[in-house]
Amino acid sequence: MSKKEKREYYIVDKRILPNSIQNVIKVNDIVQLEKISKYEAIKRVGISRSTYYKYKDFIKPFFESGKETVFSVYMSLEDKPGVLARILDVVADTGMNILTITQNIPIDRTSKVTISLQTNEDMLRKIEAMLENITGLEGVKDLRVIGSN
């Protein structure tokens, strides 16, 4: 990347990434979880070393370790009683601090909600599970993480 090129960052669902990028993520996960060498993990995943080293510096987990993280979740919800309450129960069970909740007036029986959450490094691994639990709730049409610090 030249010095004149401006870096741009995106939040992308891992499922749409090419296999080579997903394999680099797998290597990083194996190295971190199993405490083995990168070389061993690369062999296990079955990618070339050149592919790994080409992309490794450009891939970071969204919820990387840090002291505190604030992030926002945007959701489309069915306009039914109790949907938001069930979401808040899932968040409360995770122990995260809700900073703001913004809910728009429903249009076509769909409400748009943005929740800003604060978490600490002890909870970072619970976030993905929490988001999956929310996505699986009845009445949740769409969920997107729209930002973090």
From TrEMBL:
> What range(s) does the ACT domain occupy?
72-148
Family stated for the protein in its record: Belongs to the UPF0735 family.
Q: What name appears for this protein in its UniProt entry?
A: UPF0735 ACT domain-containing protein Ilyop_0677
Which source organism does the UniProt entry give? Answer: Ilyobacter polytropus (strain ATCC 51220 / DSM 2926 / LMG 16218 / CuHBu1)
Q: Which domain of life is it from?
A: Bacteria
Alphabetical list of InterPro entries matching this protein: ACT-like_dom_sf, ACT_dom, UPF0735_ACT_dom-cont
